[in-house]
């Protein structure tokens, strides 16, 4: 009997009535979760989804497609996967392919090694909560190579479900105290909103330090000190988060800046979180990625024996752009042994990171080397992505700076532009009448008139009275050019309209 | 220059001294995280890991391998993946294989459909936070088929990172209030420790209701009422969690019991969480899986228009045992529209569930059908796993019940035995001297003497003065027999030693 044909009589006789009041409502729900904001997938993205639906229904718009430039989602923008990475993951997924002549030996070698690290040689087994041993060993070797020989210990590596999972886990352990002793977490403004969201969820205190827009979004230690000293009046600042290369701001920190930050953390007893997921995305001449770990070690034993540091990497960015695999790792330095136990316990509740994501992470840290069959193609693919990104970074900066009322700092790294936009006071008034932040109003108009979806600066934080938006530079060059021209035309019209 | 050859002089001159006090310690850490316990991967599993290391070093033990019967990890126990599932995921991973004649057409068809749902046709793109549309549609169709036509709406389906992720997310939204208004969460005892861990982490109040061991671990509504009424004195009980089929207890709830529970939840205004990850794992004659959703609808509109329900499923259990993919889904009924928005916001912070796990989930809900090329092999593989599990469930029950001082209820479903063990008072005293729960002491001895790793009942909760352990029935039949014989010999010796 199909349910729809005749409902079974109820076991208990009751009067039918309309739907009664819910148990779970905005009023009764967890207020910390209610306070969470996450702009990268916020109201503007929901609106973009609605517009896409309307387009599919044939409703006429001044454009034919929505371009989602709101998120660093490389493959969605047409970037092709790195062949070698996918070959290895496919071999691990379906080991019958290990007998296929269409797969190169070096990919098979890696797949066999990963499978040997899996229970029952299957990606379908749970792994240790910290991740597969041999992959953690590969991560440690990668870090040693990257950092010119600074030692890395696989026991300090935790594979994670994307970098976000590691950042959330370590913050979760760090937050404690009530009232004025509640843990304060220092974050850059502008920031990546995972930080503010995690801080809300954990009911911790967000302590803002401002990046210096006039100085290419540099981090200034005097500003760190100001923020810290003010925060001490109302909380216990215990954590300092750094995003390098910056998201959404794209700056790449120089060695001196990192030394200053580490010294500051040492002096003020702050736990350092270094979000280094864009470590492969550095474009500007004269800029170079330095890991916090490396600089910490170079500063000598007083620092590297004491400063507590967690740093994060991911499969989602760089040249691979494998966001969907949710691969990542965290390296911890000077974590108290008892806390390591606590961290493993906490991670074990979610059992283990997705194993195909762990496999993808392995290929990021253990790619083909010279002499291996797949090396040439791998390098070609990698460099093609990175060279293109460098080209697009420059193109975007140049084009934005040609628009009146727009200023864009150099995109030294990462994969976003975060231009400052002038919004006329008449537009600000109209935004207020709509109960919108002025840059949200601007971005909504941009979306409605051009189909381009970008995220308002207010979702990342910005100095009072300044307005920005974040846009990825991931679309293919030709498409990016069209997109930038459209933004230009929109902006000029916007200025005219609200002059 | 290699770092190891010569450390760069520090930028700031300071006196070298020994490692100073840490910022993050057991005293300063988040007390809620400290309070979390997770027995399935707890101290006994860490001990098992140590013993494995010793065995690898050649240290002699009374056994040659550790058997990890602590966790439902099918592939690690030798179960083979379902071929069709892996073929589809491999095709999605490396779409060049879509041209390969070695893959069946029905697998290719599904892979193409999944890829069309992915940005840029790549598993490497982020998906909507709620999961890929077409997979949520497949989940809804699956639920309709399973529940005899009860309607399911893809908008009510959320793909998750295993079932644990969904359970944690919905609990996170539900917890609020302070002091006596703090949310109480009713959980069965014995329970799966994800629940107690999530409750600790969220600083909610755990409200225990006891399953009736004398009556095959049945759930009794009078006991629910007792627990609820007592809890009202110290918290605001708002959530009722059900695990059916039971973990660790293996009971399968009958229709009458589910009706009673739903009526109770309706009457007492409780939000229902139905953990139904073992829905394919039902073995005993006369037992059948009924989903809470189906019974809710059969009880009539007063119920199905009002009772708020979230139910959970996973790729990890059933016949596929794909734990490593971290696939799962949650279906919500009567969730307030504003809360749906809040849930999507919360989920969006972790971006999206792993996409290969979403693909694996799709195959679980959309397997080959009669007439398709892969149907025969699929059914053969599926039935082989399930028939074997049914055989092992019976074998385990029978063998345990032959051991003096051991009583084991029928394993009606799921994949564990949870036998009650008699522990002599002399052993209880010795356990106390070691500051161990008596069943932890027992399980540690079992591990040290036989290499068999099981989880003490105290990790799941049990009535005061009773002792149990949880053991999976996943090892292959021949190995399981040897394992059960070893447990028997150990138990008899244990009784003799502490008589």
Automatic annotation (TrEMBL), chains A, B:
Signal peptide: none annotated. GO terms for biological process: L-alanine catabolic process. GO terms for molecular function: L-alanine:2-oxoglutarate aminotransferase activity; pyridoxal phosphate binding. It catalyses: L-alanine + 2-oxoglutarate = pyruvate + L-glutamate. Keywords: Aminotransferase, Pyridoxal phosphate, Transferase. Pathway: Amino-acid degradation; L-alanine degradation via transaminase pathway; pyruvate from L-alanine: step 1/1. It holds the Pfam family Aminotran_1_2. Homodimer. Belongs to the class-I pyridoxal-phosphate-dependent aminotransferase family. Alanine aminotransferase subfamily. Catalyzes the reversible transamination between alanine and 2-oxoglutarate to form pyruvate and glutamate. This is alanine transaminase.
